[in-house]
Fold:
Amino acid sequence: MTKKFLAVCTLCCLSALLPAFAAAQEASQGDSMKSDSMKKDSMSHDDMSKDKMAQDKMAKDKMAGDKMMKPAVFKGWVSDSECAAEGNKKCDNKEHVAKGAKLVLVSDADSKVYTIANPDSLAAHQGHHVQVKASADNGSLTVQTVKMLK
Structure:
C-alpha cells in the first residue's frame, strides 16, 4: 500500500508540475520566436537599406545618362571611318561607306572621331565641314540638326 501511495503522490506532483513546465517551455519558445522575428525585422531593414541604395544608384545613373543624352553642338568634318582612321578627315568618297565603312564626324576641337548613329542625317554631307546639334553617347552621335560651315 505504501508503494501505491508513493506512486499516487508522485503522479499528483507530476500532474501539478506539468502545466508549469509546459508554460515555461512555451515562454521559452515565444522568446525564441520573438528573437527570430527581430532578426527578420533587422534583415528586412538591411534589405530595405540595400534596396534604397540601389534605387539611389539607379537615380544617379539616370541623371548621368540624361546629361550624356543632352544635345550639344559639334563642329567638324564628315568622313568615313576608314579614312578618318588614316588621318583623312575630309574624305568625300561615298564608295567607302557603300563598301561598309561607317559615317563619322571628326571634331575640330580635339580631332575625336564620332560614329554617327543615324548616318542618313549626314550622308549628303560627306566631305563637308559642318556644325551639328547632336546627343553624344559612348563615342556615338545622334544628329538632330546639320548646318554647313565654310
About this structure: The CA atoms of residues 20 and 45 lie 37 Å apart. The longest helix spans residues 2-69. Helices lie at 2-69, 81-85, 94-98.
